Amino acid sequence: MLIEGALRFARLTIHCWESNDNEKALEAIIRCRNIVSELLSSVRVDETEVTKQVASLYLFVFQHLTEAQLRRDAKLVEEAIGILEVERETWQQVCEEMPNAPVPTAEHKAASPQEIIAPTIAYPDTDLQTGSISFDA
């Protein structure tokens, strides 16, 4: 879904440049770059060659989009689109070959981010109506 969004905003950027709607084009390319940035940050770069290649690919696309934004160069955006289309097809093939996601192991669960929820505590010196808390001793 992220790759689809990046493709949509990249195509919108080119369309807006062709229509001389530079403000909308700027917004679209920034959104595209943000999506690619999110894709890049989601890759856990370890010592495997695959993760390094995927991270390098997303970084290359991000740099291409940044340069395209600076130059207003539709050709660079088109090149980024081509790479993202291949990446989308690759992920579609992976999903088709692996219809059932692997079950996470205890090690994966321990390494994954955990939500921390602050306990609800009644403070005797609080005024919840105004949102103020008194820490006087």
What do these coordinates show?
- The chain is an all-alpha fold and 137 residues long.
- The chain has a single domain (2-99), classed as Up-down Bundle (Four Helix Bundle (Hemerythrin (Met), subunit A)), CATH 1.20.120.340.
- Helices cover 66% and strands 3% of the residues.
- It contains five helices and two strands.
- The chain has helices spanning 2-18, 22-42, 49-71, 74-97, 106-111, and strands spanning 126-127, 132-133.
- Strands 1-2 form a two-stranded antiparallel sheet.
- The count of strands amounts to 2
The main pleated sheet reads as:
2 strands, antiparallel
Text of the CATH class: Mainly Alpha
Low-confidence stretches: 131-137
Q: What's the helical proportion of residues?
A: 55-70%
Shape: elongated
How would you state the average pLDDT, rounded? 81
Q: Number of helical segments?
A: 5
Tally of distinct domains: 1
Alpha-carbon Rg, integer? 22 Å
Distance between the termini: 53 Å
Named CATH architecture: Up-down Bundle
SSE diagram, text form:
Blueprint: H1 2-18, H2 22-42, H3 49-71, H4 74-97, H5 106-111, E1 126-127, E2 132-133
Antiparallel strand pairs: 1-2
Helix pairs in contact: 1-2, 1-4, 2-3, 3-4
Key features of this structure:
137 residues; mainly alpha; Four Helix Bundle (Hemerythrin (Met), subunit A); two-stranded antiparallel sheet; 2 strands; disordered C terminus
Q: TL;DR of this structure?
A:
By secondary structure, the protein is mostly helical. 66% of the residues lie in helices and 3% in strands. The chain has a two-stranded antiparallel sheet with strand order 1-2.
